[in-house]
């Protein structure tokens, strides 16, 4: 087992003024103009700024030096993520100290995380075992296993290197495995525990060594705090905290009207959200990633990340994990070019009254084990130019809410991948779903249900499914409105 002394290392946090200085004076910093990964954090500032939590109980504490510690032994999914979703080939190095293992416990470092449930990881396990694992939407596939010391109370040096479709993992210099294939193409880094407690320290990410080049020419978000050193205090935005991503390289403009296949955007920065952000008027996020509320699970008690007042607009936002209960619309609202990377409980819930009008235009959502859009209030929701992947339902009108509103949904130019149901509505409440220009991808057996009718009921009871398919009354579409690709 390796016992290493600690050296001072800090993350690069480049604010608006710093970027101006870099561009004007060609000052070199440890980031690359080609989006090479570059990251360091030794937690000596006593903070975990720039990391987004998903489950567990995390804090920076003293353990000879400052370390990041997770102390909830019962948490099945305790994760902390950092970095940029566009990172591709890099080496993650860290020190980790398991402090307790439960049954099936694990202490891990994570690479190429595309969501809170999809990544590659090196897991230290009880019984002096380490595994290289690929996790896809929560399903674990073991790639390699080896015997190495993994006992509690000792520090271990771990590395996880990803290059192309190849990954290599080591513990204290011993190779756990080198495996090709089955990896996400890009993604963030993370540290995690499952039914275990642990400490993490000296987290470093490099891409072929640190490249000394001028900072990227893409302007940093205007809300970042100017920085004169390698560490800076982030700026509060409402109830959020903003820092720039380590290496932003591009932004993605909203999809033009009529388009359903816009590329998923690369975040221009990060906003850590400790509590619900209340929006009245318009909030334009500039395609920064907002994350930090909730545990990434399906609990019905989580707070919303954004609460929109009647008439409010949310636009150009990437919602990362954890995101709690996503977006709440208390009245009519508009969501433009909003992207959910990993839906926790729901992506958005619409709560307005009988005459409320809601619009979702552009954007997309991934990894919703249940619903993407939940319609609890009344009125009409229009969803257009949207894409959904790996979901239970794209839309559901509430079937057992305290008030049984008549609800309507209009879906146009929507692309659906690996989703069980596009729309679920209550026939006995007078609900309707009108669908046009729906494209279903990769479903040769046509198993996706386009529109399902339910018998709505009262709180505490479950709605009864009545059937699916067009009926001219509740599910309003023709077979020609659906393209199977």
What is the CA-based Rg, rounded? Answer: 23 Å
Shape: elongated
Which stretches are low in confidence, meaning pLDDT under 50 for 5 or more residues running? 1-35, 208-260
The CATH topology annotation of the largest domain reads as Pectate Lyase C-like
As a percent range, the share of strand residues is: over 45%
User: How many strands?
Assistant: 34
Count of domains: 2
How would you describe the overall organization of this protein?
The protein has one helix at 16-25, and strands at residues 28-29, 39-41, 52-54, 58-63, 65-70, 78-82, 90-115, 118-125, 129-136, 139-147, 156-163, 166-171, 174-180, 188-206, 213-214, 235-237, 240-243, 270-272, 277-279, 282-291, 306-308, 312-319, 327-329, 333-340, 348-350, 357-361, 364-375, 379-397, 407-426, 432-441, 449-455, 464-468, 475-476, 482-484. It contains one helix and 34 strands. The longest helix is centred in the first third of the chain and has 10 residues, at 16-25. The protein folds into two domains: 16-213, Exo-inulinase, domain 1 (Jelly Rolls), CATH 2.60.120.560; 251-484, 3 Solenoid (Pectate Lyase C-like), CATH 2.160.20. Helix content is 2%, strand content 51%. With 485 residues, it is mainly β. Residues 1-35 and 208-260 have low confidence and may be disordered. β7 (90-115) and β8 form a beta hairpin. The radius of gyration is 23 Å and the shape is elongated. This is pectate lyase. Its EC number is 4.2.2.2. It is an enzyme of class 4 (lyase).
């Amino acid at each position: 087992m390796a016992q290493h002394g600690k050296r001072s290392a800090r993350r690069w946090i480049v604010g608006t003024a710093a970027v101006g200085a870099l561009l004007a004076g060609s000052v070199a910093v440890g980031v690359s103009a080609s989006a090479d990964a570059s990251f360091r954090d030794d937690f000596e500032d006593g903070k975990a700024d720039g990391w987004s939590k998903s489950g567990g109980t995390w804090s920076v504490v003293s353990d000879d030096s400052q370390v990041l510690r997770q102390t909830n032994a019962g948490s099945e999914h305790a994760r902390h993520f950092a970095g940029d979703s566009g990172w591709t080939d890099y080496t993650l190095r860290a020190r980790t100290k398991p402090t307790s293992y439960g049954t099936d416990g694990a202490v891990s470092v994570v690479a190429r995380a595309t969501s809170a449930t999809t990544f590659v990881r090196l897991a230290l396990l009880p019984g002096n075992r380490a595994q290289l694992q690929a996790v896809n939407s929560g399903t674990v596939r073991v790639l390699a296993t080896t015997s190495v010391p993994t006992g509690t109370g000792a520090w271990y040096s771990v590395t996880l290197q990803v290059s192309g479709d190849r990954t290599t993992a080591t513990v204290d210099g011993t190779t756990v495995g080198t495996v090709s294939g089955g990896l996400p193409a890009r993604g963030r880094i993370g540290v995690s525990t499952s039914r275990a407690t642990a400490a993490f320290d000296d987290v470093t990410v490099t891409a072929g060594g640190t490249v000394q080049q001028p900072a990227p020419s893409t302007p940093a978000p205007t809300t970042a705090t100017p920085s004169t050193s390698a560490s800076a205090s982030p700026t509060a935005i409402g109830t959020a905290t903003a820092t720039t991503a380590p290496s932003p390289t591009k932004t993605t403009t909203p999809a033009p009207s009529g388009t359903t296949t816009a590329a998923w955007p690369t975040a221009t920065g990060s906003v850590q959200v400790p509590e619900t952000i209340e929006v009245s008027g318009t909030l334009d996020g500039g395609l920064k990633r907002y994350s930090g509320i909730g545990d990434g699970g399906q609990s019905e008690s989580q707070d919303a990340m954004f609460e929109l007042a009647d008439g409010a607009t949310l636009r150009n936002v990437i919602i990362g994990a954890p995101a709690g209960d996503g977006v709440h619309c208390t009245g009519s609202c508009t969501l433009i070019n909003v992207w959910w990377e990993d839906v926790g409980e729901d992506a958005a819930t619409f709560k307005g009254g009988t005459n409320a009008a809601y619009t979702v235009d552009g954007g997309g959502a991934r990894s919703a084990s249940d619903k993407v859009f939940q319609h609890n209030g009344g009125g009409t929701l229009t969803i257009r130019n949207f894409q959904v992947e790996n979901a239970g339902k794209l839309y559901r009108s509430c079937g057992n809410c305290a008030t049984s509103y008549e609800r309507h949904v209009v879906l146009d130019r929507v692309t659906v991948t690996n989703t069980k149901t596009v729309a679920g509505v209550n026939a006995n409440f007078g609900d309707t779903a009108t669908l046009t220009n729906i494209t279903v991808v990769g479903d040769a057996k046509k198993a996706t249900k386009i529109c399902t009718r339910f018998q709505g009921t009262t709180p505490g009871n479950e709605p009864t499914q009545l059937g699916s398919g067009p009926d001219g009354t509740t599910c309003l579409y023709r077979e020609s409105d659906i393209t199977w690709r």
